[in-house]
Amino acid sequence: MTNAPLVLTYLDAYQKERQISYDNLDHCLLAFSGCVTLPDSYQVVSVTYKGQILPFTGRIGDFYRYLIQFDQSLRNSN
């Protein structure tokens, strides 16, 4: 397990669990805004942000939209 603030766990094309981590939410948003980070069809297993599991279920293709909404809710709470 990594100590990065945001950790995305997903199933790859061979149904093997993999993780990718980001130093901060902005880096993650930037990576997924380009649509080349991971294939849209990969299933997300879990998303952890600052040690808390986020309530996201779905595919990578839907993750960016979720991130945008999550980022906006964080900014509104500060």
UniProtKB/TrEMBL annotation:
It holds the Pfam family DUF4649. This is 30S ribosomal protein S16. Gene3D superfamilies: 3.30.1490.390. It comes from Streptococcus viridans. It comes from the Bacteria. The gene is rpsP_1. Keywords: Ribonucleoprotein, Ribosomal protein. GO terms for cellular component: ribosome.
